[in-house]
Amino acid sequence: MSYMTARKRAQGLGSAKSGTQHYWGMIKTSTGLLILVPLFVFTFGPILGATHAEVIAHFSRPFPAIVAALTIVVSWVHFKNGTQTAIEDYTDGMTRKLLIIAVTCIAYAAIAAGLFALVRLAL
């Protein structure tokens, strides 16, 4: 028999104790992407179809390289958080844990590969 009131049971961050954190993480990355994606399109668009030397010269400048790096990182973190939320909602048990680990590994591997390629272009 529980002596807790309904209000006392409802306080906190939810049943998993992390729902609010995931929500605000998604809001922050969504806001970041709202700013970064147009910047990325306008810095990356003019260089499409250019020669390899022109692309290297373009990404050797700090602004396009920083915008591309931020877009890579923020978009993959947003993907990871959104996919993790969907996995948590629709799976359970060991499958949930394995899928979350797999998605996290894929997201961080993609971030590392994207940043490595960008550094190779910029330097």
TrEMBL record:
Keyword line: Heme, Iron, Membrane, Metal-binding, Transmembrane, Transmembrane helix
Gene3D superfamilies xref list: Fumarate reductase/succinate dehydrogenase, transmembrane subunit
Cited InterPro entries: SQR/QFR_C/D, SuccDH_FuR_B_TM-su
SUPFAM superfamilies: Fumarate reductase respiratory complex transmembrane subunits
Main location class: membrane
Origin superkingdom: Bacteria
Locations listed in the record: Membrane
Cofactors, names only: heme
A GO CC term assigned to this protein in UniProt: membrane
Signal peptide limits: none
GO molecular function list: metal ion binding
Parts of the chain that traverse the membrane: 59-77, 98-119
Function: Membrane-anchoring subunit of succinate dehydrogenase (SDH).
The protein's name: Succinate dehydrogenase
